[in-house]
Amino acid sequence: MTPTTEAPLPWANQPYSIKRHGATLTNCDSEPVQTPGCVQAHGALLVLRLTDLTILQASENTDRLLGHTAETLLNKSVREAVGRDGEASLKTFLAKEPADRNPIYVFTLPARTDVPPLDVTAHTVDGVAVVEFEATGRTGANEPDYYALVKKTVARLQTANTLRQFCNLTADEFRTLTGLDRVMIYKFHADGHGEVFAESKRADLSPWLGLHYPAEDIPKPAREVFKKVWVRPTPDVSGELAELVPLTNPDTGLPLTMTFCTLRGASVMYTEYLKNMTATAGLTLAIRRGNDLWGLIAGHHYSGPKFVPYQVRAACEFLAQVVSLQHQAADDREHLVYRLKLDGTHQHLVAQAAQEGGLASMTDGHPTLLDGVAAGGAAIYHHDRWWRVGNTPSESELEALGEWLNDRPEFASPTRPLYVNDSLGRDYPPASAFTDVASGLLATPISRANRNLMLWFRPETTQTVNWGGNPHDKPTVPGPNGPRLTPRRSFELFQESVRGRSLPWLTVELEAAARLRMLVMELVVSRAERLADLNADLTRSNEELDA
Question: Beta strand pairing status for 128-135 and 493-498?
């Protein structure tokens, strides 16, 4: 969602607030989503000084939920808002629990006239305690056994034999648990764009399975937040926002980091986007693979606000963590036979190279590198020359490509120095001259200095991508500071023929390439050590003869 011209940030010299400045956004990637200055007004928030639990900031709606205006609570003990017992519970909690950037339920504040019981959660961040208040949502009768539900769900997920089946089950289980109208498993591709990989929906809703959405639909700051938090509820897309009073911490002059707040105010761009999709509420959870964000569990509701209470969200958060741990295993199960084939071929390649005394057999013998990873061509640069098999760029093109690769930051990784791309021309414009053989590239160094390389190439495969709306549509509307960016309004099927791309590289292929790299490096190093020992023996023998 980035327009061609950038307007100056209207909040550059003052604290940011979605309520005041959200309608002036011109660039989604510049929005301070971690310091929005507002909460969703169905709940309330207090910021406490850790040393004495004095209230430093309060959301402007505390009068409705806590019975005291924000102004009257400031500089008072938290006891004014939660009572003596609540204050004691908070003190004990903050002294004993691992609350840093980790919101945890503390207690439930009893109901008052016209105010239901409120669940109280708390966490610490940047030297303050953040206390949030939300209606419990509990009816007191026929409450589900969430432990039993989660246990059953985990057992079902373990039966999946493919990643697609695993994600379909995940979508079904989350929809059952939350009661949302639609739950999608949204997978991020290497270029940041997303795809609806699995879906569970109300029968009358149009299917979105298989639709792609541009990277700008979920801006980078939002993706970064989901590397830190597991769950993000938006119970009412049209709900009001309550600003913090004051907007900055009076002790530090800094805005509150709200990354970990359940009530964190939703971006205007996000709520407009959901409205354009006719959604009235949303619940989003992260799917991680290691430290990376693999995708999202994205839930939408269409029939009015949908409040998902704390205990349900806690069950969902636990399941999201289980899904993050198990979906790699589901992927591994799906490709187990392929992985065993790759590993067997690679062992044969290295044994053959050891017997021949060089790496030439990997391209000239049988099997070759093309039997090790599905590709149209492969090449090795070793001993100052190229060894090629299949369809590859010319040697002069390989020379230039090799020089470019040796400066890539991916090769600096101490654990897995791989360069992977299914659209090489985007990173390396000269590749447009040989898309017919090398639109896709998987490359890894086979020496510590990165000068020796092992490469696999895949040819261009023309693809038809089904987009959820025109991905090139970047609409603007008049705003207080000139044209203002607004989310796409059209989500109708938009088909685009994509050229210059190969079939994507599978995770199992990347892992196999990384293991083969280590085997080849061990072979080359051990052979070099043997040659060094032999030369040393010859030198000593000559010295003895000369003596």
Answer: unpaired
